[in-house]
Amino acid sequence: MRTRQLWNWIYVNGITDFDRMTNVSKSAREMFTTYFSLKRPEVISEQVSSDGTRKWLFRFVDPENPKLPPVDVETVYIPEPSRGTLCVSSQVGCTLTCTFCHTGTQRLVRNLTAGEVVGQILMARELLGDFPGGTRPTNGLVPSGEMRAITNIVMMGMGEPLYNYDNVKKALLIASDGDGLSVSKRRITLSTSGVVDKIGPTGDEIGVMLAISLHAVNDELRNELVPINKKWPLKDLLEACRNYPGVSNARRITFEYVMLKGINDSDADARELVRLLVNIPAKINLIPFNPWPGTPYECSDWETIERFSDIVNKAGYASPVRTPRGRDIFAACGQLKSESERLTKKQRDELRGK
Ligand code: SAH
Ligand code: SF4
Question: Domain residues for 6?
Answer without folding.
Answer: 1-38
